[in-house]
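call fold(seq) -> tokens
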Amino acid sequence: MARLIDQAIVLRSTDWSETSQLVTLFTASQGRLRGLAKGSKRLSPSAIARYSGGIELLTYGQIVATTRASSDLATLTEWDLQDDHRHLRTHLPAQRAALVAADLTPRFFEDHDPHPVLFDALAGCLRELAAPERVSGVLLVYLWTLLTEAGYQPRTDADVHTNAELPGRSAVWFDPMAGGFTTARREGPWRVRPGTLGLLQALHRDGGVADGSEVETLRRATRLLTAYARELLQTESEAMRLVLGGGGR
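ret:
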């Protein structure tokens, strides 16, 4: 049995019984961690002291847990709420963006596969969604970081099939099977506007999106990365549909 103290973000939470919860966390040192929080819903003074603030979706805090080699589930014994991200409950676009991030993150990794860069990126994403005018850009940058950490960063520097330079002012196609852009139109790849490609090239080069980027271009790029994630995972969740509901690339 090993004891663990770590920072964590709640990605999923479901009731296991009247008094306990099953949770999926993304932690700083362990990556995805699934656990059972026994007694976390009790209202006794001892339970409230051990699970301060309650374990709620999209919150940030410190956990104390024990893990066993013989069990897939950790046992959470303490939770100290440090940020409830209240803005995600008052601004619908920010909430939707956070739900997309929380839904996709655990799908790409196994338990106990640490990704500290991605943990910091997710924590930053949830904080930065407090600025309503930045929601589209914040989610796009996070999705790019997620795909990069998972080993699926799209290739934007050259044609994924021919290695030739990509045009700057004419439409290209994105081939999800090859993981990049191409000028060769063939069955399957998705048509992409020049502005979407240019934005992703700048994101790759600079690590972020420029202030003043056109909102619709940000949304198209976000839809493209979400559709790419859907193809990689071979599933489409309700959260993904919040992004993929309409519009082009």
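The chain has a mean pLDDT of 93.
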